[in-house]
Amino acid sequence: MDITVVAAAREDDSSLHEPLRVAHQADRLGYPEVWLGEGPTWDAFVLAAAVGADTRRIALTAGPVAVSVRDPHGIARGAASVAAVTGRPVGVALGTSSKRVVEGVHGRLRERPAAVLEETAAALRGLLHGAPGEPVVPGSAFPRRHRPPGGPLTVAAFGDRAISVAARYADRMLLDVVSPAQVGALRAKLLAAAAEAGRTPPTLAAWVPAAVDPDPASLTQVMRGVVGYLTVPGYREMFEEAGFGEAVARARAGADPDTLLRALPREAATTVGLVGDLDTVRARMDAYAEAGLDEIALVPATAGDPGGERTLTALAG
Predict the structure, then answer these.
(1) Where does the record place the Luciferase-like domain (predicted)?
(2) Among residues 23, 253, 270, 304, which is most buried (max CB within 10 A)?
């Protein structure tokens, strides 16, 4: 199983430059790839270019970027531009994001998200591999000047329609905050969708929160990330089955994040994360591999571990 690193994931109150520190540690320790997620704070391609300038060899993946706010050519151009200035392979990850981000931050309608994901993924299959001299998009008078960015196309998926899109167009499908049991179920759906499409299945990756020997600050950071999933369909049922029904009920009733954090037992972090001493974490990684995961993308807690150095050092190699 491959192990990569997520330098920028969901929004939190960590230092603005923490993603650069995480990426620097990942490169120093020999991890093969770093993910630069996009949100209200960071533009994924700008962050990827900054990481490329500050590191020596690590491959870069920008995103998931929200397909409702970026057009296919803009995404392909961004990846090719970063590859040109860094000399590194640059991949792209796509996602539908949320109404809170798409409409609340960007002021764009989040309509037909699954259809837009499919349209964007289909277009990028060609745009990410276009050669210099070809039109920048089919039918355009403008010639492409950049070389292909060279990285994989990833589709973030959880629902059946998104899984079908990943199976048909992606090199890799991405899950986020999932248990080994969910990995097994979602992998089965991916294999079935790929067989229906007559295509070799994409590899399966997951962003997994990680904290080796966590101090209280690191554990709280992981738990705050879990809180945001308590009302999401598919996730809430998983937490209910794991014995956290009271926290789920409070979330559905509109409780604030601090109240939910107090209501959520520590065990929730170990349900969907790599949290504990090194032996515990490695055993949990084995469980993900046995469930069918091809790649764990570590999302290191940094609140009590600047740059995720303790966790990334423990799990390197």
Answers:
(1) 8-294
(2) 23
- What are 183's two structure tokens? 């990995």
Tell me the pLDDT tens digit for each residue of 286-308.
Answer: 999 999 999 999 999 999 899 99
CA-closest candidate to residue 154, choices 297, 304, 256: 297
0.70 exceeded by pTM:
yes
Q: What are phi and psi of 252, to 5 degrees?
A: -70, -25
Give the Cα-Cα-Cα angle 62, 1, 183 (nearest 5 degrees).
80
Q: Which residues contact 188 (CB under 8 A, 6 or more apart)?
A: none
Phi/psi at 228 (5° precision): -65, -10
Residue 37 DSSP symbol: -
Q: Specify the residue for token string 């049922």.
A: 237
Residue 252, C-beta contacts closer than 8 angstroms, at least 6 positions apart:
230, 231, 236
* Superfamily for the 2-214+272-315 domain: Luciferase-like domain (3.20.20.30)
Q: What are the structural domain ranges in the chain?
A: 2-214+272-315
Return the SS3 of 8: strand
